[in-house]
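Dear all,

This email documents one entry for the complex benchmark we are building for the journal club exercise. For each entry we list the sequence lines for every component of the assembly. Then comes the predicted three-dimensional structure of the complex as a C-alpha cell string, followed by one or two observations. Please use this as the template for your own entries, and keep the labels exactly as they appear.
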Amino acid sequence: GESVGLHLPTLSVQEGDNSIINCAYSNSASDYFIWYKQESGKGPQFIIDIRSNMDKRQGQRVTVLLNKTVKHLSLQIAATQPGDSAVYFCAEANQAGTALIFGKGTTLSVSS
Amino acid sequence: DTEVTQTPKHLVMGMTNKKSLKCEQHMGHRAMYWYKQKAKKPPELMFVYSYEKLSINESVPSRFSPECPNSSLLNLHLHALQPEDSALYLCASSQESQGREAFFGQGTRLTVV
C-alpha cells in the first residue's frame, strides 16, 4: 500500500541550530515528494519538492535529501528561527500520480 | 495571484443543517482537491477534480457532496453531518492532476453540534 510516515512526532531545537526532519515512505515506485509547513490555524504551505531522479535539492535555508535505497526523505533547515516553528509534513504522489498523500507530521519547536 | 481562497473560515452547523464550503483559485489550475484534517493529524484526501470532472472519491460518505461549477470554483455541500465530521476542511489546487505541487487554502474550521 501507500504510506508516508515520519520518525519523530516532535523536535525541539535552539534558535540558530540546524534542524533535520525525517520521513520514511513505503512505495518504492513513488516519483515525487514534497515538504509542507503548517502553522497553527493555517493551511499547509509549500516548502520544497524533489523528484525521484534527484537525491538532493536546495532552497533558501532548506535542503531536501532523498535516499531511494532505504526509502527515506529528510528536510534540513539551516539556522532555524522561531518563525520556523510549525508542523512539517512530507507527502508523496499517490500511485496513480493524481494526488498527494501525507505522512504523519513532525512538530518543530524553536526556542530563542 | 497564487492564492486559494476558502469561505467561510469558520462554520458551526447542526446535524440537520445543510451548508456549503466554497473554494476559489485563479491560477489556471485544472486540478482541485478536498482534504479533511483532524487535530494533530495529517490531511486526508477526500475528492479530486480534474478538468472539472470528479476523478477520485476516497470512499467519502454521501453526506459530503462535491461540486465543481467551473475550473476556478470548488464546492463541498454538507448535509446531515455527524459530530465526528468536525475538522479542518482544506481545499487545494495544482496545475495538472498529477499529484504535484498543490497550493492549499487556509481551510474551513467546521464544528458539527
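Observations: The radius of gyration of chain A is 13 Å. The first strand of chain A starts at residue 4 and ends at 6.
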